[in-house]
Amino acid sequence: MFVYLSKKIAIPNSILLKCISWDKENGYLACGGDDGLLKIVRLDSTQNQNVLNSSNQVQQQSNLSANQTLEGHNGCVSIAVWNETSQKLTTSDQNGLIIVWVFFKGTWHEEMINNRNKSVVTGMTWNGDGQKICIVYEDGAVIVGSVDGNRLWGRDLKNVQLSQVDWSPDSKMILFGLSNGEVHLYDSAGTFIMKLGLKAECTLVALKWFKYSIYPENPSLAILFTDGTLQLMKSDQDDNPILVDTQLKPVDCQWNHDGTILAIAGRSSDSNPGPNQNAINFYTPLGKLIRIMKLPGNQIAGLSWEGHSLRLAFAIDSFIYLAQVKHDYMWTCFSNTLVYHFHKRNKPESYVMFWDTKNNERYVKQVRQFIGTASCGDHCVLATRLDDEEIQISTQCDFGLILCNALGTPVDSKYVSLEPRMVAMTSSHVITASDTSFMLWHYRTPRSQTTIDIAGIKRENKEKIYSIETFLSGEHSLSCVTARDNVLIFGTDSRNLLGFNLSSTTVQFVGEVQLSFEPVKMSLNSNCTKLAILDHNGVLHILQLEVDGASFTLGSILSSVLFKMKRFERRDVWDLCWAMDNPELFALMEKTRMYIFRNLEPEEPVVCSAYLCHFKDLEIFAVSLGDVLKDPENPSKDDLVAMETKSLRDTRHLLEKVGTNEAYQFVEENSHPRLWRLLAESALQQYDLQAAESAFVRCADFASLQLLHRLKNLPAGSALVKAEVAAYFHKFDEAESIYLENDRRDLAMALRRKLGDWARVSELQNAATSTDLENKSTYNQMGNFFGDRHQYIQASRYYKLAENNEKLVDCYYNMEDYENLEKLVDLLDERDPLISRIASMFTSVGLCEQAVQCYLKCNQMKAALDTCVTLHQWNMAVELSRRIQVPDIASRLVSHSDRLLEHGKISDAVELFRKANCHKEASNLLFQVGEQAIKKWNDPLKIKKLFVLAALLTEEAKNTATQNSLTMERVSKFLDAPWRPAEAWHYFILAQQQFQQGKLVAVMATAVKLQDYTDILDEETVFSMLALASALNKCFNVCSKAFTCLESIPSLSQADRESYSLLALDIFTKYPPKDGRSSQIECPHCATDIQDWSNSCPECNNRFSSCVATGRPLMDTSLIWSCRVCKHSAAEHDVLTRNSCPLCHSPI
């Protein structure tokens, strides 16, 4: 980060300023001061943009577009706050007068005035959405109002003096700062919540709670005290705040637009008076000091950030000072691609933009926690923090490195345990460093991977971590890094440089050198002979390095052999870029000027404030990153700056004014390949082939020399020469017209073929006679053109015309046009290999029937069967296996179902058999699962559901005309009577419900019915329920029989048998074994009187069906309801209120 003063605005009559505030949305700057001064100014929005003048130099505009003095205050204006949402300004003076100003028809006017006439306003602030304002007075009065001027509530806080106020980010709480140094927290309705824990014991200066933090883990609440103590808190509940001693006598502090920098204004606490006592300290949210900026003047009154934090405004004495801020953005540039990091408001994710500045194509990559980036050649590396706990545990790493190409596509990656605070990149390595250690990652690109595979080189997967304690004694921290080719250099906070050689397989330490300053940024030139170093104060130093061949061997004497300091210094430097093709050329930025140096001698400066990207062919490419990041998702080419060196500009001027021969001498004196190429092109435009050849030789442009060789073989001055020259200068339409005028349509078509302009080739062919082969070739190329751009509809048209079925298949597949793909299969011969390829395409999208038809057409039966199995179309698989006589399909089906059962996927296994049209096998599987569940006896309702589903599948099998059958290893005993187990568990659950509901008469009938299912249910449970039900109904004869059955169960233990005997003895000594209930009914068959709970007649032995709703026997068959699915019956009056069958739950 670099900050420098850029403008000074004087206030008329030397009136002292007391406050300053910047409207971050609209750019208006308000300042207030003595004698009721209130002024609003606005700087042109283009002041940060780079504008080319007539001399091809970049200029900046910085004029005031608005300058208005507002009248209304009589006392000193001490507070001014903006409401950016509604574009309103609220000001207050020493008399307590509050005025709200609104912008109307190009000027500012009074909208509202309020004067309490009791006390002085000490603080005002709008909430985050600009709908509420909180005003505090010195006497403890608090007023909260709305944006339209209505008073929402007010309160007088007793026995307190208020000095500061601020809203919480969510506008649900308000912080009040008291004059005694305390901070109280209230809710938005004015109810006291708590007192904040403060570490300092003095009065408050400022209270700032940032509203739109993109890093929720970072502190956002800043509390500043008069003794210079700064307390940073994550929230009002933070028990471990960060304390910073600013060593200032502070007057104000402000967060920047994204909460990543806190600026504190004040006077130096140095007891020795002197000039430039005013200072601005810049801190990170974690309290780390970024830099200190000294300011002129006697007394600073306040500061304010511009909307995107590119400028700062200071109120000092009777002047407004503006400072430019150059942030240390996380960005890089390579292969015409600009890569930069940005955030979206209120979103924690990081985003990385890959902007192809040449074609204006943009690719956005989302990264959870971005740390840094670097680039080299055609790739860049992104350093991130991992947020996937599984990856962190499995790799034992918390960070990741992602190697990307110009499209943002990852080509290699690496998990690392070392935090990559600094990242550098060479053509073969990525260097990452923390405070005390560094690591080298030998990355692989597709090209290098091919080379490694051919050579059979085995790459190490584990990278070694090097600690600087190994090379440098004492406590040191790394501050910066640079690398190029085989040279690696680190800078430390203890003013050391460490050199390393990367030419060997291991890192070789070269040595160290002591500096007189702390390096913060370094850069190597193209041949690693010079090192540029920037310190904290923006001073540039150039160090001479000695390189021996390909290795970086600097000798053993540190002072004279390792590094040689060149006597070169430049101040106020914030960016530097070496030329890629000349080690003696570099460009640097000094404040708002760019200087180009050749052999350490500067050219005349150019006004510019853009960040330098690269320097090649005497052209500097730069970008105004601050303007780009105002709308990072839609970067504009207007923010790109291309500048030429003086020698290149002079050469152009000479060629335009005096000609080729005169310019030759100048280029000879300032020799550079770009200048020779410029001279050669100028000579070629004048058809001076001899001069052009001489210049192309000097710049080693062999392709252009071949062009000249062809031109010499043509008649001098002929039209064909002019056409070739026009094509060389990309004047293709002119070249084509010349060819056509000279009846050389073949050359015109050849030119368009080279350019890939196949649409024009087609037009030229249609205008003349051409063969079918030529037409098809052109259609193929046009199809390829659209196909490469994923425009498959247009591509398919041309492939159809070219009869290129192979490419046509790919187009249909990418378009998901499976209907045309089917039609194409019908047109293909059965021996065409495309059919099997189309079949695999159908398989990949789950179209089993179409895939099978394709395989059958090309006679690949086994592949068709495998497709059915893969897509779980078992019905088709079984049918197909019969056709081709494959006996193992049944075993594959059963083994697959077994795997599903092992993972507890019962429903999937059943569905598997159903899809195979094996309903009987599905029901058999469910019966077996039910039998296993009976043994566990843990969920009767689940068991009933299993048996009901099994019975339904059995019924479905009976109703299916054609079904497949498999050989079953084990057949369930319930297949012959599928509804019996469902009935058993249904009546068992019904009896339990009747017990709980106290329906003693009903439970008697249900318990008697359960005797029919002792082969399914547990006998002890059944007869125990019957004994209990009969005893409660005083049917002791039935109860006696139930105890007899209990005692005769073979599997009953002796202890349980004795217990039942004792219980029976206890019961029947009190009650004789006779049925006490006398409720009887007539048997509908023989008119014999029987008990109403009997399920059979003892006289005629007729059995009665039971009601599935109540368990009672159905004597009257005229009033019964029968389920259409399970065929079970119930009394009509018992199902009137039901929506489904009590047994199978099918809708009634």
UniProtKB/TrEMBL annotation:
It comes from the Eukaryota. WD repeats lie at residues 70-101. Residues 675-765 form the IFT80/172/WDR35 TPR domain. One of its GO terms (biological process) is protein localization to cilium. Residues 331-644 form the IFT121 second beta-propeller domain. Residues 1-326 form the IFT121/TULP4 N-terminal domain. GO terms for cellular component: intraciliary transport particle A; non-motile cilium. The keyword Cytoplasm applies. InterPro entries: Beta-prop_IFT121_2nd, Beta-prop_IFT121_TULP_N, Ift122/121, TPR_IFT121, TPR_IFT80_172_dom, TPR_WDR35, WD40/YVTN_repeat-like_dom_sf, WD40_repeat_dom_sf. Its main location: cytoplasm. It is found in: Cytoplasm, Cytoskeleton, Cilium basal body. Keywords: Cell projection, Cilium, Cilium biogenesis/degradation, Cytoplasm, Cytoskeleton, Repeat, WD repeat. Pfam families: Beta-prop_WDR35_2nd, Beta-prop_WDR35_TULP_N, TPR_IFT121, TPR_IFT80_172, TPR_WDR35, Zf_2nd_IFT121. Residues 977-1075 form the IFT121-like TPR repeats domain. Residues 1106-1148 form the IFT121-like zinc finger domain. This is WD repeat-containing protein 55 homolog.
